[in-house]
Design brief:
4-stranded antiparallel β-sheet; 40% helix; transferase; cytoplasm; metal ion binding; nucleoside diphosphate kinase activity
Length: 139
């Protein structure tokens, strides 16, 4: 079911800072099951396509540059109410505004380098997951 899956990326800043294990531990401890996961690096074209919704925004170029500067961990997560529960787990985009104990409060350093991406809707979770994974890569 669509509402049981969401998509996430551990972003280059969190990968560079050695937070993959801590973030994955927090995700699984919160009841999510990982159904697909890989360490990969986005090309410029990948990042421009994935973030096309932000193309007209002033931060688009910086976002693409940031997301291509190093590897990411892409994952599809499963749990009842996955999108909403994961958005709560990651916290506000600005780590200063994020609730204590959230992933961004623990691991993000700024609004721009905020450690993780989480889909904002069931529809986007499906689109984003399909962008990074073929059906045979999901379990």
């Amino acid at each position: 079911m669509a509402d049981n899956r969401t998509f996430t990326m551990i972003k280059p800043d969190a990968v560079e800072n050695g937070h993959i294990g801590g973030i994955l531990d927090q995700i699984t401890a919160s009841g999510f099951r990982i159904v697909a996961m890989k360490l990969t690096q986005m090309t410029q074209r990948d990042a421009e396509t994935f973030y096309a919704v932000h193309k007209e925004r002033p931060f688009f170029g910086e976002l693409v540059e940031f997301m291509t500067r190093g590897p990411i961990v892409a994952a599809i997560l499963e749990k009842d109410n996955a999108v909403e529960d994961f958005r709560t787990l990651i916290g506000a985009t600005n780590p200063e505004d994020a609730a204590e104990g959230t992933i961004r409060k623990k691991y993000a350093t700024s609004i721009g380098e905020n450690a993780v991406h989480g889909s904002d809707s069931d529809e986007n979770a499906q689109i984003e997951g399909a962008f990074h994974f073929a059906g045979r890569e999901m379990f």
